[in-house]
Amino acid sequence: MRALLTVFSLAALTTLDDANAARILGLFPHTGKSHQMVFEPLLHTLAERGHHVTVVSFFPLKDPPENYTDVSLEGIARVGLEVVDLSFFENNHFISKALGVDNILRQMLDLHQLVEMALGTCSKLVNWPPLAAALRKDYDVILVENFNSDCMLGLSHIYGQKAPVVALLTSSLMHWSPDRMGVSDNPAYVPVMSSDFTPRMTFFERLQNTFLNVYFKLWFRYCIQVKEQEIIERHFGRRIPDLQDLAKNTSLMLVNVFHSLNGVRPLVPGVVEVGGMHLNHKRTAIPSYIERFINESHEGVVLLSFGSLIKTATIPEYKERMIMSALSRLKQKVIWKYEESGEEGTLEGNVLKVRWIPQYELLRHKKVLAFIGHGGLLGMTEAIAAGKPMVVVPFFGDQPYNAAMATEVGLGVKLSYEHMTEETLLAAVQTALSAEMRLSARRVSKIWHDRESKPLDTAVYWTERVIRWGFHDPLHTAGRDLNFIEYNLLDVAAVFVLAIVVVILILKLLLTAVLRLIKAGFSGKDKEKIH
Ligand SMILES: *[C@@H]1O[C@H](CO)[C@@H](O)[C@H](O)[C@H]1NC(C)=O
Ligand SMILES: *[C@@H]1O[C@H](CO)[C@@H](O)[C@H](O)[C@H]1NC(C)=O
Ligand SMILES: *[C@@H]1O[C@H](CO)[C@@H](O)[C@H](O)[C@H]1NC(C)=O
């Protein structure tokens, strides 16, 4: 009987060991196209490796590989592509600037836009039959984006999902991520991701950083998590566990950063840096009119792009003229990603405005020397992978921090959009084009590439590791199960303080008693003298 059991459990072990043909569910309820661009290569590769992959997102593939099933969320919300109007960044927040709190206020306002997005989507997701159908099936692992929403975690619970959860992040850890893995985010040296601080902070920066660290956690808890919980419970008419506790059941986090670009911070085994996993190393063709323009440049080319979210054509006219006159003073040619340009680009002097650029392909072109970008993490990652120096003009979200880190690690220089002048822009581009900066960018690129395995392979390995071992292989610290008081040792500190107070009181009592005795002794002697 015993032998038979052993054989059975051994058989169970070998099937456990085998991550082949696992059933994988991906849940991606965010509308930003750039986010999906980070996940796609991983999902694609998992399907190519023989797994059965079901992907719920706003961006179904045109040409899905075998065993890859799309569940579309199209129609639930407007997708985020070229939606940010640049006129928004003119002269705003001037009252807060007068009060000296514009930096804090910017970060609060930036994030606040995510509330409506999360709650709007969640209230549609609860009643989306294709999603319900997908959630009723069984899976071996669930991949879910960790961004501004935990709605999917609640829905997975509603439909009885028991598989381990892998959280994917397109940026560095969100303010509310570290608590899910019990990883330290001590604000003394870990800047909040929306700040423009580097890990070395002054007293006032630490003050702001600590305030924001706490504020954003509470903000996520009460402005999003609690409300999503209400949306789900109201729709299904029953209670579910606290979303915060469901979130603390995350097995693994794959984070789209790498320390040599994004800064060193404490990690645990279950928080794995896979920055660069979205890069497509296959070469794609450059449109011939762009290639011809590059071929014809003798001094090289500078690339200018503010990414996929910002609609560059909304730039105020005076600012566009200013940028154009700065660029016209360069020896180099310039390619500017600008939506409202001709079919084959619009040529103005040495500047070619084009609707769409194969950005990573161009950055790797040997004649492309520098990159003026907005500090979006994907563009930054492409620049460091290609070893090209940057001028970073940050706008919102994590861009100010990315800009600060680009300066810190020697990848480029940062430039304020608001205070940009013809002279500062020209000077910044010339700094980026200098021999020292180009050399420095090549060096940080080599350091960034130097890893045990390629980021996509790392992501696949850890995902399959979770498929193999699931809850048998905890990758978080016990810190995540402690409450605020325990985690920060406030109870222990209280006991120490109490103990010190008690000791002081006892010492004081003893001292008074001794003094009284001595006094009594003296007065006794005095009396003897008199007699
Ligand atoms: C797709 O799944 C089927 C059934 O599990 C399997 O036989 C086939 O090899 C898979 N295809 C790929 C490309 O892995
Ligand atoms: C995490 O989820 C698994 C599967 O649903 C469950 O067995 C386990 O108890 C959960 N752990 C916690 C701490 O909630
Ligand atoms: C650009 O130059 C390369 C290398 O000299 C050449 O192969 C390519 O055909 C040229 N492209 C165009 C569009 O002129």
UniProtKB/TrEMBL annotation:
<comment type="similarity">
    <text>Belongs to the UDP-glycosyltransferase family.</text>
</comment>
<feature type="signal peptide">
    <location>
        <begin position="1"/>
        <end position="21"/>
    </location>
</feature>
<keyword id="KW-0472">Membrane</keyword>
<keyword id="KW-1133">Transmembrane helix</keyword>
<keyword id="KW-0808">Transferase</keyword>
<keyword id="KW-0812">Transmembrane</keyword>
<dbReference type="InterPro" id="IPR050271">
    <property type="entry name" value="UDP-glycosyltransferase"/>
</dbReference>
<dbReference type="InterPro" id="IPR002213">
    <property type="entry name" value="UDP_glucos_trans"/>
</dbReference>
<dbReference type="InterPro" id="IPR035595">
    <property type="entry name" value="UDP_glycos_trans_CS"/>
</dbReference>
<keyword id="KW-0732">Signal</keyword>
<keyword id="KW-0328">Glycosyltransferase</keyword>
<protein>
    <recommendedName>
        <fullName>UDP-glucuronosyltransferase</fullName>
        <ecNumber>2.4.1.17</ecNumber>
    </recommendedName>
</protein>
<feature type="transmembrane region" description="Helical">
    <location>
        <begin position="492"/>
        <end position="518"/>
    </location>
</feature>
<dbReference type="Pfam" id="PF00201">
    <property type="entry name" value="UDPGT"/>
</dbReference>
